[in-house]
Design goal:
Elements: H1 2-20, H2 27-93, H3 95-107, H4 114-129, E1 135-141, E2 147-150, H5 165-170, E3 176-181, E4 190-199, E5 202-212, H6 214-221, E6 235-238, E7 243-246, E8 272-278, E9 284-291, E10 298-304, H7 305-308, H8 310-356, H9 362-366, H10 389-395
Antiparallel strand pairs: 1-2, 1-5, 3-4, 4-5, 6-7, 6-10, 8-9, 9-10
Helix pairs in contact: 2-6, 2-8, 3-4
Amino acid sequence: MKRHEGMIETKKGWTSIVRRFNPRKSIGIKLFLFFFTSVFIIVSVLGWNAYRISKNAIVEEVSDSAEQTLNETRKNVDLILGGYRDFSVQFIADADFLGQLRAFVSSGSNSLDYLDQQKAITSYLQHTASSNEMVRSVTLFTLDGKAVASSVDKTLSSIPKQSWLKEAVKTKGEAIWLPASSTFVTGQSSIGHARVLRDYSGPIAIVLVEINSDALSKPLGEVKLMSSKSSPDITVFDPETRQVVYSSLAEEVGKPTSFVLPEAEGGNSALQGAFTMEHTAGQDNLNIYSQSSVTGWYLTGQMPIRDLLSLANRILVFVYIALAASAVIAIILGYIMVRLFAKPLVRLKDRLNEASMGPSVFPYIARTRFAIWPSRPSGRLKWPGPLHIKSRKRLAQPSTL
């Protein structure tokens, strides 16, 4: 029996607590929740908008800076590779060499002076190649793909067949650039530059200039697209074959690139620009690119957005701190508001409830500045009739904060 009574008392206690903190029945809780929610929402909206605006501003600023850096680097690379393009032009500009080369190719390997002509041409190639330390070899091929002379001391028959020869013949004298490969003459990873040598009579032979890959690694390896230590490296790829021409990771050279160029108007790829794109790993990247005017290759850089937002993340941390501080301040101010405004309202409500229960407590209220019912001359009160009993009972409820 006592246990049952204890359970009843406990239930009443919990009911009283719930009723006390029920917003529907507590003026104080209503005021507190209204003030707390208003402050928290205002701080949240302002803080989040500040973070969003700063994040977009940082990404835009870094994008412009990185794109400008990449364009300057591309111009430097074009200047360097343009020098190698001019290097091959000197073979066309030398009329004596072209005449000697045509006589050599036309004579055939069975002629008596073939070896002397080959020796003279080889000496000319060696002298020309030695003028540039980045040139590994200069080799001449006939139009049908046979190597006939080279600046390196190597058996010509051991030089592998070159798959790019047919492409070079189709260009009719225009220079072509070959991605980094170890299948050229020296067997080392090199960049190839080839063109058809021709005179007024037509094409004579094809010259291949094998360029050391360091010609790209030196101007590209020192460039930082970002000021942070996590600055990405620049990668170069050929848009026609999508083959990586240069990368700081040697194992990536020669493999297909994962960089996707955006399409401009007309379906062609833009020459330069920047855009954001979701990577295969699920993170957003800032991609920048710039096309070389000499080779047609694209210089690219990929930067994870999360690495760019290190400064914006500090703002986000500050927003969280401001939210926590605003919550504490709102609680304190809300409690003060309850004490200042809710308490007097509750006391007034309690007095009205007491007054509605009978005349024994009414004289206390009648002596105040507020007159609930006008007193009769005799001092006796005329209480509401039976029609007001329900309303009096409804008012006679315990008030809560």
